[in-house]
């Protein structure tokens, strides 16, 4: 049985092992046939569907105030802009979660640590957040290999509450990844997303194509959302 979509996160089992503040989040999403994404899922996970299709997300935000095992916020290494390509899946236990195809970050040590600890596909990139007159702009360029991103968004002021599509795309309380030959689930917990509407002003992207999802970044997204952010806590892998 697949767990229901819920705006309020379930409590973590045991103490949190890490926390992060996520701010200035830009959510772009496109509908994609589930069959096109099945090959990108880890073993034991299948594409999750909403309104007759699966979805791919292109998410940009600023990460800071990162802690580990109750430590004070980690300076420098725990603060950077990030851009990720993510999918939505459900496992054999009915747990819903995200699957990261790629994540761009500017702190090489953090990139290497995430890859080593959890096999999460981070890439070292020059990532920048620029705040303008009522707009936010994110840029990213990989330091090695191809992969570029530039987006300008104008956040709106209309709250997005009780929207089934927005809830499906954002109310996700864990991620799936492969570690030592098996699929693991990393749970997270945070307050409900404070979402508002937004207008996408400009997008130039090759990250989706590099992730194995070509041909969609040159079409308008099916969902555009913005959030000022949340603080999230992570539990132990299971």
Automatic annotation (TrEMBL):
Designated name of the protein: DUF2071 domain-containing protein
SUPFAM superfamilies to which the protein is assigned, alphabetical: Acetoacetate decarboxylase-like
Species of provenance: Salinibacterium xinjiangense
Source organism, top-level taxon: Bacteria
